[in-house]
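Lab meeting, item 3. Inverse folding demo.
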């Protein structure tokens, strides 16, 4: 089902390696047997990444122990390229979906921040940073911004940037340009106001065309404040945010958890949740993909937008406090 607001694109977005000019570590199909090996825990001695088993449940992804669901590369002795994550879809397809993030990730604090430049990073564990996050506190507020880098330090190119409206009515998120273009218009994220209590945005996801190829359509999403069981499953603050996909169309591809995210009160699927961490001096925020969000079927561009907007909401609330 499409509507008049959906926008199709003749070519898909580039990979983030192409858009940023920095290569990512990728997994080649020949590196893995047809039956995936058991998932190793992330540690410095691991020699290779592993794939998740088909049919993994969304509830398992929401639990804190689900960090082992994510295939990861070993931590390098010094900062290396950004990691691409993969999962194995249905056994009949035996194809791979490259993933920019693990199903469950956290935001950690840099213990030695500067006076104005605050530094953070996201990853599954504190000793294995994946992507650096820089937050600049300027004055007026319109000069404040947030940057998600395409690697574990701020030396890496920006994967996404966020700028804040001086009146707090919106945030503008800039992603790498779509294929065939040289620039990318910012995506507006409308902040809660008199008409809504949600953060709203629209972003492109992959979709099949009539000729069997792939086109792209723009879908609407909302971050809604929530104290649901899905948020509680993160074992952080009991009140957080849930990302709701405002369509019930099931995209093709992905693993068997596609479409299985918990429903919101209006019947739409919850595809991600986030909340503040508790009882930790360095872990600040928790994020988890659910259902269609964890399946990979919504694409990397959507995943980066989901994580970036979740970080921006956390940053916005953190500045106010």
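The presenter then showed the designed sequence:
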């Amino acid at each position: 089902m499409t509507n008049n607001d959906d926008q199709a694109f003749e070519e898909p977005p580039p990979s983030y390696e192409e858009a940023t000019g920095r290569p990512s570590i990728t997994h080649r199909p020949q590196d893995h047997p047809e039956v995936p090996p058991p998932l190793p825990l992330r540690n410095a001695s691991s020699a290779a990444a592993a794939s998740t088993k088909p049919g993994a449940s969304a509830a398992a992804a929401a639990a804190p122990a689900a960090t082992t669901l994510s295939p990861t590369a070993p931590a390098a002795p010094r900062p290396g390229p950004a990691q691409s994550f993969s999962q194995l879809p249905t056994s009949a397809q035996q194809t791979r979906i490259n993933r920019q993030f693990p199903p469950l990730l956290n935001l950690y604090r840099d213990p030695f921040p500067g006076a104005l430049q605050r530094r953070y990073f996201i990853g599954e564990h504190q000793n294995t940073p994946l992507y650096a996050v820089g937050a600049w506190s300027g004055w007026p507020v319109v000069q404040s911004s947030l940057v998600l880098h395409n690697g574990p330090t701020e030396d890496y190119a920006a994967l996404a940037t966020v700028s804040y409206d001086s009146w707090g009515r919106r945030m503008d998120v800039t992603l790498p340009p779509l294929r065939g273009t040289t620039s990318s218009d910012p995506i507006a994220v409308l902040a809660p106001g008199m008409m809504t209590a949600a953060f709203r945005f629209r972003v492109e996801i992959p979709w099949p065309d009539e000729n069997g190829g792939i086109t792209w359509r723009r879908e609407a999403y909302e971050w809604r404040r929530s104290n649901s069981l899905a948020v509680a499953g993160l074992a952080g603050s009991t009140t957080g945010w849930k990302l709701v996909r405002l369509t019930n169309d099931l995209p093709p591809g992905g693993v068997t958890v596609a479409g299985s995210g918990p429903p919101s009160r209006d019947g739409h699927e919850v595809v991600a949740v986030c909340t503040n961490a508790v009882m930790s001096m360095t872990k600040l925020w928790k994020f988890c993909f659910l259902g269609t969000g964890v399946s990979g079927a919504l694409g990397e561009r959507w995943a980066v937008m989901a994580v970036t907007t979740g970080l921006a909401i956390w940053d916005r609330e953190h500045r106010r406090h």
